[in-house]
Amino acid sequence: MLMVVIIQQENEVSELQLAVFFADSDGDGHDDEVDDYPDNPDAWSDSDGDGFSDQPGLNISDDCPNTNGTSYRHMKGCIDTDGDGKPDILDDDIDNDGISNDLELAASTATQQFDIFDPNSVPPDNDWDTIPDVLDEDDDNDGWSDQIELERGSNTTDEDSTPFTMYGGNTGWFFVSGEGFVTEYNDYGTEFSLSWLLTALSSELIIPIALIPIYLGIWYYRHRTFERFDKELTEITNINDLRRFEKTVNEAMRRRKLQAHHGVILRNTIETKEDEIDVSWFSKYSKDSEE
Questions:
Q1: What is the pLDDT of residues 160-210, one digit of tens each?
Q2: Which of 108-112, 203-207, 235-239, 242-246 is least confident?
Q3: Which of 13, 31, 10, 14 is nearest to 22 (CA)?
Q4: Which listed site, 168, 177, 273, 279, has its alpha carbon 20 to 30 Å from 249?
Q5: Nearest by Cα to 105 from 96, 120, 117
């Protein structure tokens, strides 16, 4: 406080002596009238007027001395858009809308930009899991990915609508090793469901599925042919019959009436049978010669 005392000396009316006095409550060398902190000897100015001092090293020092800010966590006196005490520069959700800055920017497109400083500019998040729908693989958080639900025809935004419930009640299970049958989606389980079957029948899988009976028929025919040949081979006792039988087997192999491993088994058996017939013939021939 500036105090001016006017003293008029006798017979010298035109001479004035000014006595100037300064009020400095905290003794920091700054007059109380210009001292922003008149009771703190270590602080005296606040250039941006945000309540934090320009002088460093104090518990009230301003980390952004040229910017009026309200942050008080980690950094003081810096811009804090959402008023949570954390400066924007350190805040991963500047507008406190529940979606992180990075995800808001990632959810933006050329036609729709989301503002990380505006709490009213929020990308859609159907299941409130803080992941925008455009980035969320499971928009309704029911355990089934949106891709599978779209393929099966269930509602991707309804937690109660899944490929197992879309036909009423529960119509499917996953078999998980060590756990048995479960109704929750499981990446490592084997699915048995009406939804999967109907989808398969209406997609490109219908061709291999339709071929299953044909494959089974071919397998059964080849297996029966092998059993018949194997039985006939055990009844052959003449080398000429064995030669004719061998030609029959070779022809069956060429026409794919036998599986490859069946052909190998029969040929090995033919060789063994040939050795048995030769030994038998030699024994009989030697006996007849001796007589």
A1: 999 999 998 999 999 999 999 999 999 999 999 999 888 877 776 666 766
A2: 203-207
A3: 31
A4: 279
A5: 117
Half-sphere exposure of 261 (CA within 13 A, CB side): 2
Give the CA diameter of the chain. 185
Q: Is 123 left (phi over 0), alpha (psi -120 to 50) or beta?
A: beta
Q: How far apart are CA 63 and CA 58, in angstroms?
A: 11
Task: State percent of the chain over pLDDT 70.
Answer: 86
The dihedral of CA 102, 103, 105, 106: what is its sign? positive
Neighbours of 75 (CB within 10 A): 20
In angstroms, the CA 287 to CA 280 distance is 11
Identity (one letter) of the amino acid at 193?
S
Ramachandran sector of residue 256 (left: φ over 0; alpha: ψ -120 to 50; beta: rest): left
Parallel/antiparallel/unpaired status of strands 3-9 and 12-21: antiparallel
Residue 67 has pLDDT above 50, yes or no: yes
Distance CA 236, CA 107 (A): 79
Between helix 260-290 and helix 239-254 the angle, nearest 10°, is 170
pLDDT in tens, 267-288: 888 888 888 877 766 665 555 5
